[in-house]
Specification:
The chain has 476 residues and is an alpha/beta fold. The chain is built from 15 helices and 19 strands. Helix 1 runs parallel beside helix 13, helix 2 crosses helix 4 and helix 4 packs across helix 15.
Length: 476
């Protein structure tokens, strides 16, 4: 990896001492022919409905397979898969062999499925790619079809150019990332075809840049680790009765009291190697009172004043601990009857190193009511494992960030959400969320209404990630 970083640094010096302009600030010019081809691929992917309710990841994977064959991939290097009972939730794995069999491949991971989107809720048709005011609008425009299109485009261009990397390059496009409880292609591959995923490490969603909301890129991040997403069902029961003669012993009241105790509970602060570096470097870059508190907390997790200030930011608060929040609620059976049953779903994001059972025990203790029943729902996947803060992975990305975005720092971060990387890490494949593209502070409507992707973010991110993949693929 050291030689790769030096090579990138040498390329940066060829143009002289003057710093290059930040790619995030440049206007988009007329698209080149290869950019037009990429735009068409992106459009096709976005406009293929892959929601769980009415779409088909299998259809999207078939379209990708056809493109790969046209680019010269032999059928033996393309694996389309489905599982029994999940005919529309299929995926695809492709392989570009490396020149050195002694070097393990790298893996490019993206998910094809998208969050549900109602046409009546959106300003534009969520399944038609609309370019407007320097943004692409559509469901999946950001999450995660931009990354999927970039990976597909990169390995197709490599194949057409007869490029033979030192390391092989695998690409896995899967379904089920967006819906807890649905069939998950990454999980299925890890359990049934780990040979198709075998790699030194994987590149995935979860990293990226953030603007100030006015077009200026502030930071690039690389995700190194994530939390475990876990739901718990909280229930209360009662004999009920006629609502005209109420009593305090009420299933809804008991559930409400338990939920308020969970609301008020603060899980203890913890740091991983990644989050310690994140708060130190991000805090130093901010430089204000919040930044100073972040730096102080990275040095001393017991600094109560620093913790109090940092925790006022909801994102930082979640990075520092396990969090649990009520997300669904139901109760009662009639307007004129006392409730016999009430239940709520509490969604927890468990800090790496903690367990589902430990979190359940904490919630039970916090509620402090033996009549309240707590049940852990089926886990989404394995427990999150801390990922190594590997400088052999970080350094090439850092060098490219310096080339593409002068004066913008690259900072490792832990995701408070959930990705399919958790399934790969469980079988020994460290997974990193890559930098390159960027979002605005509102996350560009991801999972919400009118999801969008900056046109410049898409095309610059494509160039950046193509260079990053080549850097890793050439490393010894």
């Amino acid at each position: 990896m050291k030689n790769v970083v030096l090579a990138i640094a040498s390329m940066m010096m060829l143009g002289g001492a003057a710093p290059a302009p930040s790619y995030s600030d440049l206007p988009m010019g007329k698209l080149t022919p290869d950019q037009m081809v990429f735009r068409g691929l992106y459009k096709e992917l976005v406009e293929t409905n892959t929601t769980l309710s009415s779409g088909s990841c299998t259809e999207a994977a078939a379209k990708v397979a056809a493109h790969l064959k046209e680019a010269g991939f032999p059928a033996g290097d393309i694996t389309q898969f489905t599982a029994p009972g999940h005919s529309k939730e299929g995926g695809l794995v492709a392989f570009l062999p490396g020149a050195s069999p002694a070097l393990k491949p790298i893996l490019l991971l993206a998910h094809l499925d998208v969050v549900e989107a109602k046409r009546s809720d959106w300003v534009r048709d969520p399944f038609k790619l609309v370019e407007e005011n320097n943004y692409f609008y559509a469901r999946g425009a950001s999450d995660d079809k931009a990354m999927a299109a970039i990976w597909i485009d990169a390995i197709m261009r490599f194949k057409r150019a007869n490029y033979h990397p030192r390391r092989g390059i695998r690409m896995a496009l899967t379904c089920g990332e967006e819906t807890i409880g649905a069939f998950n292609g990454a999980q299925w591959l890890a359990a049934n075809r780990p040979d198709l995923l075998a790699a030194e490490f994987a590149l995935n969603e979860g990293g990226g840049g953030r603007t100030n909301g006015h077009g200026k890129l502030m930071v690039q991040t690389m995700q190194v680790g994530e939390k475990t997403a876990q739901d718990y069902r909280i229930e209360t029961f009662n004999a009920g009765g006629h609502s005209s003669i109420p009593v305090r012993d009420n299933a809804i009241y008991e559930l409400s009291a338990a939920l308020l105790k969970i609301r008020d509970h603060e899980f203890p602060l913890k740091l991983t190697d990644t989050t310690r570096v994140y708060f130190a470097q991000a805090g130093a870059a901010e430089g204000d009172a919040m930044g100073k508190a972040m730096v102080a907390l990275s040095k001393d997790p017991n600094d109560g004043a620093a913790e109090a200030l940092v925790s006022t930011d909801r994102n930082y608060h979640s990075m520092l601990r396990t969090t649990c929040v009520a997300t669904l609620l139901s109760g009662g059976h009639a307007d004129n009857a006392l409730p016999q049953h009430a239940e709520a779903t509490v969604n927890c994001r468990i800090f790496p190193g903690e367990t589902i059972e430990e979190t359940a025990a904490t919630l039970t203790k916090v509620m402090g009511d033996a009549k309240v029943k707590l049940t852990a729902e089926k886990p989404r996947g394995p427990l999150a494992r801390p990922v190594t803060l590997d400088q052999n992975v970080l350094d090439p990305a850092r060098a490219l960030v310096a080339k593409y975005f002068p004066h913008v720092p690259l900072i490792p971060t832990m995701s408070t959400g959930a990705t399919d990387g958790i399934f790969l890490e469980a079988i020994g494949i460290p997974t990193y969320g890559v930098p390159g593209g960027w979002n605005d502070p509102d996350l560009n409507g991801i999972h919400g209404l009118n999801e969008r992707k900056s046109t410049r973010s898409l095309f610059v991110g494509r160039d950046f990630l193509t260079d990053l993949v080549k850097a890793y693929a050439e490393a010894g």
